[in-house]
Structure formats: C-alpha cells, structure tokens
Amino acid sequence: MMLVCPEGNNDWYINSPEIDSLQWETYIAVEIPAYIDSHYPTKANRMGRAITGLSMGGHGGLYLGLKNSTTFGACGSMSGGVDLRFRKSSWSLIRLLGDTTQHAQRWIDYSVAGLVDKIKPGESEIIIDCGTEDFFFGINEKLHQQLALRGIPHEYTTRAGKHDWNYWKNAVSFQLLFFHHYFTKTETP
Predict the structure, then answer these.
(1) Both ends of the chain: CA-CA distance in Å?
(2) CATH code for position 84
(3) Which pTM value belongs to this model?
(4) 15-59 tens-digit pLDDT
(5) Could you tell me if 110 and 63 are in contact, meaning their C-beta atoms sit under 8 angstroms apart?
C-alpha cells in the first residue's frame, strides 16, 4: 500500500467558486493520481485507490471520494467536518464559498452532507469514524443516519474520544484495515 499525503492548507479540499487559484479537488482527484500512476507501479484505477483524512481532511476524504468515485473506489473520514454549515463563520469558509445567504446552495453542494442524495448504494466503499466527545460528533451521527435511511452501505464507528491525536492514532488503524480489505476484495477474481 502506498500512502500519498497532499497538503490542503485550510481550504477544505474543494474547487473554490470564489477563488480561481484554489482548485483542490482537481489537484487531488485528477492531477495527483495521474502523477502517481505515471511515476510508480500502481493499480491505476478506482479499485486501486482510496482516500481518507481527519478533521477538515475527513471532509475532503469523503467529499472527494464520493464526488470522484471513478477515481477512488473507497473513501473515509476520521472526525470529519462533514457539513460545512456547522460553523459558517469559522475556518475561512466564507472566503472559499461566498456569503452564506447569497450563496446558500453552495454551502450544501460543497458539503458531504449535501451529497447524500446523489450517492448510489454500493458505488463507493465508505468508512466514517468519530469520537463521541468530538465537536463534529453530531454532524457525523446525522450523516450516518442519512446514509442508513437511504440504504447506502457504510462502516460507522464511534467510541469515546475527542478531536485530537489520541483518538486519530487509533482511528487510522481501522481506516487502513478497512482499505486493506477493500483492496484485497477487488483483487479477488
């Protein structure tokens, strides 16, 4: 398994409709896979790729994975900010998406929570993990319930823990195991 860890700054891994130079989705879902596949011996298709992250990167892992399911066959999130409407005035989101009133639909469209109705059951292997004391726990719980209601298969794990490295050090092991099983399953004839 090869791990590639691109930096996303504080830009939520989206193609910003407000700032033309911030095109993180294109960079991570198109340019990086193309570069890696051209420079390393990879399984150069969705069955050989997964994406995940933690916190803002947890949003990115699910958002990019679900929107780009032809690139990534599996996706995950650890303590992800899966609904950008959670704290509209935080994390420079207004700079990226524009005013919350004038561009209210963007705040839905650029959130993992806004993708739920567009996901086809079985299209992506999904894993979500969040600690019960994490400030993002409520929005992860809501995402889990929405996915379950729509019949979208996914792994959902919660356990005691906060939004910190103590939690993520444990969570990453489960994510890697989940992806290992995905890759193994896709290699079986």
Answers:
(1) 20
(2) 3.40.50.1820
(3) 0.94
(4) 999 999 999 999 999 999 999 999 999 999 999 999 999 999 999
(5) yes
